[in-house]
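Query structure, 167 tokens:
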């Protein structure tokens, strides 16, 4: 994976920023929109859109059971809101009360309390956690990609010099 990411055309900044955007967006509660949001954020920051899609792999079925409650409880703490003990039960109870036609008919009435009590804390917590993850991913990847591209350049230069000597 490291080899493939490092060989993507682009500057070390663009590659690392794109991946970091995807990883950071994985901490947002907008499941189903991560690819689009990561690509948009990467485009705004001048990052690589392909690596932003690769970065969204940070949010996957094995990590979401840790990420989603983590963002919720952090957001509740930051907002000074009481968090519920049964985070997933609260989501199931809220969304299970209404059928699709009721939600589409009056989304703010049916989902307003859910948005305020669950999605807002997850968004606030996700912003903080995602920002930390962005910084870590960017710092590590930028360094790795820069080093890889530099070694690859030196290897190519040495190969070209050998060819010149043979002629």
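Result returned for the query:
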């Amino acid at each position: 994976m490291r080899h493939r990411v490092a060989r993507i055309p682009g500057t070390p900044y663009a590659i690392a920023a794109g991946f970091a955007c995807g990883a950071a967006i994985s901490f947002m509660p907008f499941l189903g929109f991560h690819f689009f949001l990561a690509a948009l954020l990467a485009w705004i920051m001048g990052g690589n859109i392909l690596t932003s899609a690769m970065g969204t792999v940070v949010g996957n079925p094995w990590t979401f059971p840790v990420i989603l409650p983590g963002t919720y409880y952090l957001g509740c703490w930051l907002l000074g809101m009481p968090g519920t003990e049964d985070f997933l039960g609260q989501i199931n109870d809220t969304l299970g009360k209404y059928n699709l036609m009721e939600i589409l008919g009056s989304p703010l009435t049916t989902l307003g309390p859910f948005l305020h009590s669950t999605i807002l804390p997850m968004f606030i917590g996700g912003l903080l956690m995602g920002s930390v993850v962005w910084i870590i991913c960017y710092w590590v990847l930028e360094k790795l990609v820069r080093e890889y591209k530099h070694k690859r350049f030196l290897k190519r230069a040495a190969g070209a010099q050998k060819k010149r000597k043979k002629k």
